Fold ATP-dependent 6-phosphofructokinase.
Amino acid sequence: MAKCKRIGILTSGGDCSGLNAAIRAVVHCACGKGWEVLGIRQATLGLMARPPQSLKLEIDQVDSLLTSGGTMLGTTNKGDPFAFPMPDGSICDRSEQIIAGYHQLGLDALIGIGGDGSLAILRHLAQKGGINLVGIPKTIDNDIGITEHAIGFDTAVNIATEALDRLQFTAASHSRVMILEVMGRDAGHIAIAAGIAGGADVILIPEIPYTIDHICSQIKQRQDQGKNYCLIIVSEAVRTQDGETLTMTNRLGQCRYGGIGQYLADQLCERIGVETRVTVLGHIQRGGTASPRDRLVAAAFGVAAVNLIEEGKYDYMVTWQNRQVLSVPIAEAIAQYRAVNPDDTLVKTARGLGIYLGD
Ligand code: F6P
């Protein structure tokens, strides 16, 4: 088997905690084999630039990265290179430039750390341009198929749980209903995990329909039991009771989920007159030091990805399944969206605890 000498690594899509820990693991493992590692700046934008934007990564440089948030390489979650928005407003296919950038750097393989969207784009580039790609899954949403963990999810759950812990005291002090709106895109993994861990009374996720009447009953039931407050956690993609998706668009025309927390607050106030406050946790869930579990997952994925390159096993993504790091074809992983399964253990757990979860 030909020995690989120079590999590239990039982070793509929304950042999250644990990315630097993964970069560190890749550098340690690859340098340990005598390989050279080039960090590509700002995902595919670094390969699109001329000269391609990269930096050589050495063990000394990455050792302090274990606890730092974000990504030292930068990232982007905008601009599909196959339909890239140009400054003059036109759309251009810039995939050839990215592929040429990879070859100009003399890379033998590329490790792409990304979510399903990024991995799909990277795979498309790899297929078109002969890029030897290995994928590492990351996303606080934890919605990538065939992996129980993606880097960043655990830290986001910890942050959301801590938010509930804090909200509980102020909720009890003021006899209020507190609503915490969390991220997660179209999957409710963050909400259900943090909701159980943080003692929520109501957990709303996009996968399970709910009614406002049932939420009101849950609040009243608690009041009858002498409990003067209620904690509600809701995923950003949960729809209104009428099925409307709530989004916000900024002046740049960028559209994101947002508003379901306030919608619920207004509904509850109107129906049963409870005093309600809404906290939108936002990007706090993506920032800061990674949890020990995310660091562990990042370390294991980084090492496994380098080993896949050594085996010449390209077009694969590392995965976490039943406490083992395995690998699956990237095509299979991105073909399956991992939403919360209504038969999931956590769904049963929440219901067993008397949490209102919809339906
Ligand atoms: O996919 C990660 C994520 O944080 C989602 O949970 C959220 O909907 C989205 O990204 C926010 O994206 P942006 O950073 O563009 O605001």
The first helix runs from residue 19 to 32. The chain has a mean pLDDT of 96. The pocket of 6-O-phosphono-beta-D-fructofuranose is lined by residues 14, 77, 115, 139-141, 183-185, 236, 256-257, 286 (CB under 6 Å).
